[in-house]
Amino acid sequence: MSINLNGLYVISDDNLTPKNTILTQIEEALKGGATIIQLRDKISQDKEIEELILNLQELCRKYNALFVLNDRVKLAIKLNCDGLHVGRSDHHRVEEIRKEYKGILGVSCYGDLQLAKSMEDKGANYVAFGSFFPSSTKPNAAVVNKEVIKEAKEKLSIPVCVIGGITSKNANILINEGANMVAVISDIFKSKDIKQKCIEYNNIFKGKK
Asked: Within a domain: residue 22?
């Protein structure tokens, strides 16, 4: 499988993508052209989602998309997940994770360019910045200046993902600044037509290339 760290990065949500519908919802996103899918589950025990992870990874491979597991380092290693994304609580051990985990590793860097450079040096394959707009998923997240994207593109050699309050109406602002990936939760899964909404994002990317 060729890894494409560009385009629409769709993230699941405990409320918006419940376990009884998540596979159908994610497949709609993949049909619409999502290139990366992240399972972000903050409530389940590891053993409760092992089968779901394997099913999602298989589904993503079918559509030649990257599957990413959020935060659960041991599980990502155990199940050989294609991608793993970690945040603030794992920053101190990214170097250690990189030695054990062989897949695509992404790290949340919020608005901190120096941190992003450090994560790149420790083996991250991409970094994520945000929140760029007020976010209903993370209402307390600090809003980051979009200038960080341009600076990151100048100083880093790895792709840049943006997240936080992104919609099909404001995504082009961040793509024009140089963002390689836009990560979206609410705007996709609150949409009446997930596939069509993902197509909208892909058209934005195509228009900016």
From this structure: yes
